[in-house]
Write a structure and sequence with these properties.
This protein folds into 2 domains: about 130 residues, Spore Coat Polysaccharide Biosynthesis Protein SpsA, Chain A (Alpha-Beta Complex), CATH 3.90.550; about 40 residues, no CATH class. The protein has 6 helices and 7 strands; from the N terminus they run ββαβαβαβαββαα. It has a 5-stranded mixed sheet with strand order 1-4-3-2-5, sandwiched between helices. A two-stranded antiparallel sheet has the order 6-7. The longest helix has 11 residues. The radius of gyration is 17 Å and the shape is globular. With about 180 residues, the chain is α/β, with parallel strands linked by helices.
Length: about 180
């Protein structure tokens, strides 16, 4: 079992509304944009960002350390001493989240809407029968933004704005 250093200078007294779970590996060229997108969120409540760098061979870990030292009350770092692999790293990071809600943002993704989390929290608060929500995405490939043509056609085929767990199973079997 790998030893994981946790850097946590957050104030445990204030409740966390949203935990953002971010895993990273070789994301040195992207991680600053990912972290900036989380830090730019306007939310009526406390956000914590958990970043776990899975022993990247590039400068990902150093960038994360710099951001954490500049934002010790908002960023918690998980720094395994040996590579865990994507899924164990994700599950370890997810298990450390303290928020009422959990948002996912990988270290090579970034958010452009500073109200993204507030919109999602508002939706979930207004719809207690829903367990999760998501949104359209754009994909940046070699400097060009494209629409997400992976999930949208599958959901559009259902003809409704909400899906349930059975729909998700149907969608995954149609891939």
């Amino acid at each position: 079992m790998s030893v994981i250093q946790e850097i946590d200078a957050t104030d445990d007294q204030a409740p966390v509304l949203v935990s953002v779970c971010m895993i990273a590996y070789r994301h040195g060229q992207f991680i600053a944009d990912a972290i900036d997108g989380v830090l730019a969120q306007n939310l009526k409540g406390r956000i914590e960002l958990l970043v776990s760098d899975d022993v990247s061979p590039d400068d990902t870990r150093e960038i994360c350390r710099r951001y954490q030292s500049q934002n010790p009350d908002r960023i918690r770092l998980l720094l395994p001493e040996s590579n865990l692999g994507m899924m164990p790293n994700f599950l370890q990071t997810l298990s450390k989240c303290k928020g009422r809600y959990i948002a996912l943002c990988d270290g090579d993704d970034y958010w452009t809407d500073p109200r993204k989390l507030q919109k999602q929290v508002d939706f979930l608060e207004a719809n207690p029968d829903h367990a999760l929500c998501f949104h359209k995405a754009q994909i940046l490939v070699n400097g060009t933004l494209t629409e997400d043509h992976i999930a949208e056609p599958r959901f559009a085929a259902l003809g409704r704005s909400s899906v349930d767990i059975l729909d998700l199973g149907w969608l995954s079997s149609k891939q």
